[in-house]
Structure formats: C-alpha cells, structure tokens
Amino acid sequence: MIEKKVWKINGFLGILIFLALLAATVFNVIASVKETGFTNIVLAAILLLLALIVSTGIQVVQPNQAKVLTFFGSYIGSIREPGIWMTVPFVAAKKISLKVRNFNSERLKVNDVDGNPIEIAAVVVIKVVDSAKAVFDVDNYEQFVEIQSETALRHVATKYPYDNYEEGDVSLRGNTEEVAEEIAKELQERLTLAGVEVIEARLTHLAYATEIASAMLQRQQANAILAARQKIVEGAVGMAQMAIQQLENSGTIELDDERKMAMINNLLVAIVSDRSAQPVLNTGTLY
C-alpha cells in the first residue's frame, strides 16, 4: 500500500462549526423550555448529533508525526502536516513517528567466511518515509526493522574474513566503511517493504569470540610478522639488483657471477637481518 494524502481543512474552522452547532443546540433547548415545542427539541437533538459527528473528524498532528486514517476499515489517506485539521468524520487514526531513530543491534555471534567465530554488532539509523506501508504492509515495523537488521548483519559478516593481510582483499576489520555500506544497501532492500529508509549503518563492535580470541591474536601477530618479512625481502632483492645494475652501468668494475652472488648475499644479510650487520673486511681475494 502506498501513502496518499487525505482530504482535510483547517481544524480551527472545524472547531468553529462545532461551537456553532453546539450554540444552536443550546438555543433550541432553551426555546423548547420556554415554548414547550416538540419541534425545537427534535432540532436540538439533530444539531447535537451533527456537532458530535463534526468533532470526530478533528485531528491534531504533532511535528515529525503522521496519522494514518481508516474509514470503516478502508485506508483513505495520511496527514503529515503538523497542526489541527478537520477531515472525514468517524475515522480511526494511528500515529506513526517520522523522527530519525537509532537501532542498536545485539552482539551477534557468527562465523566469518573462514569459519572463525566472531562477535559483531551495528547501529542502524532509520526513518519512516511511507506511513501506509509501515502500518499496513508489516505487522510491527519496529520489530520488522530489528529482525531484518540482524539478518542483514549476519549475512554480510559471513561473506568476508575477519582479517586479511593480502592487498586488495576485503576484510571485516580492514574495510569497515565498505562493509557498513554493504550492510546499509542490503538492509534498505529489505526495509523498503515497510516504508523505512536506511540513512546509514555503522559497526559498533567487532572481535573474535572469547573461546578463540587468544589463539587468533597469536595468529594475527604471526601473519603480521610474515607479511612484514615478505615486504622486507621484496625490498632487499630490489635494492641488491639496483646496486649491481648501477655498478655495471657505471663501468668502474666488472663483476662475474661469483662476485655478484657474494655481493647479493652480503646486501640481503645486511638489509633483512633484524640486528645491525657487522662488517667483515676481506683483504684477500675470492679465488
């Protein structure tokens, strides 16, 4: 169901009509007492009934609020504008808040793409943009948002590893912005049915589950050391190649294969070692 506007007029005009009918009722009651006329009594009853009917159509709408109106079970429209309004009599009105609100999910325990148990939680900022869908298309839109938010969070968390040291690969810890955008996008697809707009989503908690936290910390440290060593080796090899290339291009010395190997070995030891290299002076020859 799609939201639509309902017929309405200024509510103060409705109050004025109500007071006028009420005054006419009192006047006819007084006239019936003075003249003891049956016509005045009937007219007074009719005017009082009309006043009551008019009063049922008066609606007060607060700022950032909508009222969804039904007339004997049929949806006739919604009022979004704040103020006092007069609309169709005998309507049933349901209030819907249009304020921006936060939903904080519980800490969910899920398995990432590698099968590691992790704890994850998120905050979702939402706003109702279609009051008719929020009332008629779902049973309880707040509960619907809660369940769908946790479902989307679980689904996205199982698509990526908690951590990854390879360049270009997406991980939950290393790409929180991308993960949050994907959660918001998937959640918007789910909540469109309820007339709810997802303004943003952000991860508020991300950690390994307690039972493997210690072991995974050691694994993270080992992976970090290994990744750092790989970078150092790549840089050392490049530096050794560049040094030999510059010596050969300058033409100052000529290096055979054995001397090249000895030089590369010395450079790699000096660069890759985590301790200061101790120079050894060779006063002889390799041959």
Automatic annotation (TrEMBL):
Residues that span the membrane, as ranges: 12-31, 37-61
Gene3D superfamilies in the cross-refs: Band 7 domain
Domain of life, per lineage: Bacteria
InterPro entries: Band_7, Band_7/SPFH_dom_sf
Residues of the Band domain: 56-220
Alphabetical UniProt keywords: Membrane, Transmembrane, Transmembrane helix
Pfam families xrefs: Band_7 (PF01145)
PANTHER family, per the entry: BAND 7 DOMAIN-CONTAINING PROTEIN, MEMBRANE PROTEIN-RELATED
Name of the molecule in the record: Membrane protein
Species for this entry: Dehalobacter restrictus (strain DSM 9455 / PER-K23)
Lineage of producing organism: Bacteria, Bacillati, Bacillota, Clostridia, Eubacteriales
